[in-house]
Amino acid sequence: MPQNIVIIGNGIAGITCARNIRKQSNNNITVISSETEHFYSRTALMYIYMGHMKYEHTKPYEDWFWEKNRIQLVNDHVISIDVRGKNILLQKGTSINYDKLVIATGSVSNKPDFPGINLSGVQSLYGMTDLELMNENTKGIKRAVIIGGGLIGIEMAEMLLSRNIHVTFLIREDAYWNNILPPEEAELISRHIKEHHVDLRTGTELNEIKGDRKAISLITNKGEEIACEFVGVTVGVSPNISIVKNTEIETDRGVLVTEFFETNIPDVYAIGDCVQHRNPPVGRKPVEQVWYTGKMHGETLAQTICGKKAAYNPGPWFNSAKFFDIEYQTYGTMNAKPLENESSFYWEHQGGKICFRVVYDKKDETLIGINVLGIRLRHEICDKWLQEKRKIDDVMANLHQLNFDPEFFTKHDKNILLAYNHHTGKNINRKKKRMSLFN
């Protein structure tokens, strides 16, 4: 007999779960979201603002897709969850019963407690409502300030620059994202930000935002006053767990789950940015808020809900981003500063826009992590080599296998290998034969 599966949240985790449940079962599926009626690509928000796309272009599925696949969409806000009665109360007054509940509520932007934080013209950027507000807040303005040096901050800088708005970027670190990136990569990106005419101010924090109703300036920890008409607050996100706070569902930073995405309440699961793993997989963190992990969560949980219990096994960590026109990829473990057991080799192109870093174990010389800027690598091979614990010399001898840059792009593996040999005093030769992914 079909069960009633209710999913709260229509982001990548919730929608992937719904689609995969439908592929594997005849269950009744309801997806509840108070943000937008249809699923859209959150990572494309910046391109809507910049005029490269329209909202409808960000929807991966046509509007008819949901009815055809018998996935009911409810555009409403969840007021409360009765985990004993298996019932959800919605803001518009209706209620929905469930047999199995999936919480996929995503993240919320962090809001620091500074004087003036609630003034008009001060905002974060996470979802569609934030984008609409940013459109209003930046109409006709000339100067903006961004606070916080993460990935959303640099995206917001690019968005504002596309409208010829002068951007001052305040980060408390000595270089951009140097709590994540090793020093050389952080310096490379910091230079690149400045080259795009962003006033990047390192070691600078916000003390106060000034204005009557609307922000007109801010005061830094150095006593400087910076005139502005818009303040972008991009100091990270946190799991969105507000709807479960008054329930028996256990939380810490996020909703606590097992490797099967089970909460402490039977038939209640959680996936995506809102979760915190009680026992994270090896090499992974308890909270991981990136697009592809949400997709993996949804795929994995769908199997369990459909009777094929599956544990979450994401493999080695990886991520990618873009800093203006420089692409970034990272694989495995890459600390801002190498640990005692780690050796690191770094190569940078003389143009200062491309670099390669590899980290490996000092004792057994097995591969630990890879960072690249301005080079595209083959994900399948990076993942395979990390899981196989390839020796660093073998990795360097086969660097050409990693290359995924388009035809006619300059290849850098020969120069990287020469630099590695010079750095280590070794004489590793480049292997000419291309090995199969399955060797």
Task: Please explain how this structure is put together.
The protein has helices at residues 12-24, 45-49, 65-68, 128-137, 151-161, 183-195, 291-305, 379-388, 392-397, 413-424; strands at residues 4-8, 28-33, 71-75, 78-82, 87-90, 95-97, 100-103, 107-109, 122-123, 143-147, 166-170, 199-201, 206-211, 215-220, 225-227, 230-233, 237-239, 255-257, 268-270, 275-277, 318-323, 326-332, 342-348, 355-361, 367-373. The protein has 10 helices and 25 strands. 23% of the residues lie in helices and 26% in strands. Helix 1 packs parallel to helix 7 (291-305). A 5-stranded parallel sheet has the order 3-2-1-7-19. The chain has a 5-stranded parallel sheet with strand order 9-16-10-11-12. The chain starts with a strand and ends in a 15-residue tail after the last helix. The radius of gyration is 24 Å and the shape is globular. With 439 residues, it is of the alpha/beta class. Mean pLDDT is 95; it is low at 435-439. A hairpin with a 4-residue loop joins strand 5 (87-90) and strand 6.
